[in-house]
Amino acid sequence: MRLIVSKHTARKWWYRWIRTLSWFSFRYYWFVWLLFILSTLVLLWLIQRSNKVQRCDTRVIEKSIEQINENLNYCCDCVNQVVTDDPVAPPSPADVINCDDQNSIKEEGSNVAPAPKSFEVGNVSGTIKLCYNNGDIFPDNIKVLHNGNVIFETGVVTGKNCVDVPYVYNPGDPTYVQVIVEPSNSQDTKWKYQLGCPQ
To answer: Helix H segments across 74-133?
Structure first.
C-alpha cells in the first residue's frame, strides 16, 4: 500500500519541485543566504530612493514659497510699519579742528597726556592718512577713536610713519574723530602728528 502511494505521489509536479528545492537549499545553503541578503539590500535601496523622490517634489516647495509670499504681502506689521528718516548725527564739539593734511599738532618735552583733539572728517567713508613722529628714544602711543571706539593706534613705539586709517561712517554716527596721545613717562619725550581727510 505504501509503495502505491509513493509512486502516485512521485508523479505530481509539485512534489518534484518541492523535493528539488529542498535538495537545492540543503546543498547550496550559502547561495540561499546570499540571495536573501542581496534581496534585502535591493529592497532597502528602492525604499530610500522612493523617499528621496518624494522629498524633492518641487510642487511642495513651490506651494510653500507661495504661502510665504502671501503672508509677507498681507503682514499687518509690514503694512503699518512707519519708515523713519536717517538718524541725525550728534553735533561736533565746539573746539573741533577741520581735517587737513597741513594741520600739525605738536607738543614737545612733556610726559603729561594732552587733552584729546577732535577732527571733523565728514560723513563719507574712506581712509584717513595719519602721519606721526614719536622721536627716536622715548616711545609714545597715538590712538584714533570714532564714536568712542579705537579704530587705530600706533602702539608704544618710536620713529615716524604714515598709515591709512579706515574710516567707516554709518548714519547717526559722529562726523568727527578724536586723537589721543599717551606719551612716554620721560620728560624729554617728543611727539607730533598730522591727520588728513577721508580719501
So the answer is: 76-79
Put the strands of the sheet holding 190-195 in their side by side order: 105-108, 190-195, 126-133, 160-167
Residue with cell 618735552: 109
Other beta carbons less than 10 A from residue 164's beta carbon: 13
Half-sphere exposure of 152 (CA within 13 A, CB side): 20
Q: Is 10 helix (H, G, I), strand (E, B) or coil?
A: helix
Per the prediction, the chain carries an average pLDDT of 81
Whether 177 shows a pLDDT value over 70: the answer reads yes
Residue 38 confidence class, pLDDT cut points 50, 70, 90? very high
On whether the CB atoms of residues 121 and 99 are closer than 8 A, the answer is: yes
50 phi and psi angles, rounded to 5 deg: -65, -35
Phi first, then psi, for residue 110 (nearest 5°) are -140, 135
CA–CA separation, 133 and 154 (whole Å)? 10
C-alpha cell, 29: 545553503
Q: What are phi and psi of 60, to 5 degrees?
A: -65, -40
Contacts 24+ apart (CB under 8 A), 152-159: 156/182, 156/184, 158/134, 159/133, 159/134, 159/135
Going by the DSSP 8-state scheme, the letter that residue 112 receives in this structure is: S
The number of beta carbons lying within 10 Å of the beta carbon of residue 110 is 15
d(CA 43, CA 59) in angstroms, rounded, equals 27
